[in-house]
Amino acid sequence: MKLLKDTYYFFHSFLAVVTFTFLSISPAIAADAVLSWDIPSTYTSGSQTTDIAGFKVYYGTESENYTQSIDVGYTTTYQVTQLAENSAFYFVVTAYDSLKVELGYSS
Hints:
Mean pLDDT: 77
InterPro entries: FN3_dom, FN3_sf, Ig-like_fold
Domain Fibronectin type-III: 16-107
Number of helices: 0
Protein name: Fibronectin type-III domain-containing protein
Order of helices and strands: EEEEEEE
Organism: hydrothermal vent metagenome
Shape: elongated
CATH class: Mainly Beta
Largest sheet: 4 strands, antiparallel
Number of strands: 7
């Protein structure tokens, strides 16, 4: 089993730190990515976040072309499963409020 871990810092519509842990299960099967992030306390404008209700994870095999999305609810860790082995994936996270209005991509 291979374990790769990188931390990426995203600053866009909210401030967050997203940590990716990639687990390789088997060369012939699939891989998982464990994502984690901090709940933003401020918007990039500096004002306080007061109504964060949950998060969405978007991903795809091309940067800025995210073909899959998962509403993960109000959690700061999520494991994306069944990713194609030996493929690059790009991930972004958005926060949303109680009306399901999303902030911009984490970047």
